[in-house]
Amino acid sequence: MARHRPASEGGYQRGEETRAAILLAAVAVFGECGYERASTRDIAKAAGVNPPSIQYYFDSKEGVYLQCVEHLITLLWQKMGAAVDAAERAVGDGTSSDQMLIEGAIGILGAVLSTTKDTTQMGAWRVFFDRQQAGSCPPSATVIFERKFKARIDSVMRLLIARLSGFEVGDDRTILHSMALFTQGLAFRAHKSRLLSALNWKEVNHKEMEMIRGIVLAQARFTLEGLARQS
């Protein structure tokens, strides 16, 4: 992380505004180009700053990317924190019924598939997130994302599935069910062009996302109820 900070109060505020502008521009550039193809010159141009500003505030392209990931994690917890907390309470209570456990899992998946209409800024973050999930990022970013976000999600989903299915938490089937449930909604964004072509849609707006959300959650509920019946 960059060590430089403007000295005066006014300079500090301008510095933070410049830093924020670079981050927003970087999210859009990384989302459009991917990490490897993006350059600090591209980011500086999009932010309306001189290229040396990138090194001044972030040290390197990787430094900018890691700060984007840190901010993305903050946004994701704002969106998903309450649902994950509720699921952890349900799975931590030995008296929770299967239905309570299922609702805990559905709550997490519903948060992932939030139907809040994208602003231009949030749309850029979603594209950035999709590339991050696809592995178009430096290894250091994957480590941060796993440690500060994904590990907790994986843990609670596996615990929920283990309770419902009777499998051990570390059983391959538990892990595969967890991965399948968590990624099925994201797949619609990762393969957006195929989705639009197959359904003759022009765009995925609020109405279309509601339909996707309803189908994915219904399918997830069917799977979870099936696991509970088989246990």
TrEMBL record:
Residue ranges annotated for the HTH tetR-type domain, each copy included: 16-76
Keywords of this entry: DNA-binding, Transcription, Transcription regulation
GO molecular function: DNA-binding transcription factor activity; transcription cis-regulatory region binding
Residue stretches spanning the membrane: none
Database matches in Pfam families: CecR_C (PF09209), TetR_N (PF00440)
SUPFAM superfamilies the record matches: Homeodomain-like, Tetracyclin repressor-like, C-terminal domain
InterPro entries: Homeodomain-like_sf, HTH-type_TetR-like_transc_reg, HTH_TetR, Tet_transcr_reg_TetR-rel_C_sf, Tscrpt_reg_YbiH_C
Known DNA-binding region: 39-58
Keyword Transcription set for record: yes
Keyword DNA-binding listed: yes
Name used for this protein in its record: Transcriptional regulator, TetR family
Species of origin: Pseudomonas abietaniphila
